[in-house]
Amino acid sequence: MLIKPKKKLGQNFLTNEKILDKIVKLGDITGKDNILEIGPGTGNLTKYLIKAKPKSIIVIEKDSDLINHLNLKFKDTVKVINRDVLSLPENFFIKKFKVFGNLPYNISTKILSNWCLSKNIRFEKLILMFQKEVADRIIAEENTKNYSRITVLSNWKFDIRKKIDIYPDNFYPVPKVQSSVLEFIPKQKIHKIRDPRNLEHVTRVLFNQRRKMIKKNFFKLFNNFDEILKIADIKLTDRPQNISVKKFLDLVIEYEKNLN
Asked: Which residues touch 163 (CB under 8 Å, ≥6 apart)?
């Protein structure tokens, strides 16, 4: 059965067998693990996940045209769910999954942001593929041009490392961009924030004009700005990329105090 990838869903199927095997091995899968795969496509990676013999495998596929193909290919070895991953309720993640995914480029940061900002979702590990440009933003260091909101949101909860860069000719159809696989390990201790929506708000306001000094946007968040600047050890002449993840989190904690 010939599966025609859908451009509107950002479908580019990874076909290199060696890379597929390498990605699965990054998960250190054991017989106790519950696996969640996002966007299995034609099941190229799923095949290798099955070989690793985890406790269970669930795959989430939005494209209804692929569901029969996946059910026929894997029968009862995996549970196939026809849903948009963004529509999954938090209680779906009651198990601490090891998650694998070649995330659709057009919604990859939205998926990751939602998971980072959730109070209740917990993971064992994430092995996720992104467009290289997006991956570089996720792992960016402060004081670099790639440093962004998604850097702050994801590094709040995870220790992140790039594992593989993948060239376009390893996909069908061949995309115009390179891809990268990142490993996300949940941090044992994170800054305690009352409501993650406040982290979303503070970062959105301050990154609104990311190449400009924070002065104008800072005043939208704080009245007692002199005190806050001192506590967070930042300056009004700083740009968002100059503020470390820790300092952003300190700002959120102070922002929440001012909400009382």
From this structure: 26, 127, 181, 182, 183
**How many angstroms separate the CA atoms of 73 and 98, rounded?**
22
Q: What is the CA radius of gyration of the chain?
A: 20
In the sheet with 98-102, reading across from the earlier edge strand, the strands are: 79-81, 56-60, 34-38, 98-102, 125-131, 179-186, 158-166
> Cis omega (within 30 of 0) on the bond before 173?
yes
Domain 196-258 sits in CATH at: 1.10.8.100
Predicted local distance difference test score (pLDDT) of residue 174: 87
> From CA 217, how far away is CA 76, in angstroms rounded?
54
pLDDT tens profile 40-87: 989 999 999 999 999 999 999 988 889 999 999 998 899 999 999 999
Classify 17 in phi/psi space as left (phi over 0), alpha (psi -120 to 50) or beta: alpha
Q: Which residues contact 63 (CB under 8 A, 6 or more apart)?
A: 6, 9, 11
User: What fold is seen in the domain 7-186?
Assistant: Rossmann fold (3.40.50)
Is residue 191 within 8 A of residue 253, CB to CB? The reply is: yes
pTM greater than 0.70 (yes/no): yes
Residue 238: which H helix or E strand, with range?
Answer: none
Q: In the chain, where are the structural domains located?
A: 7-186, 196-258
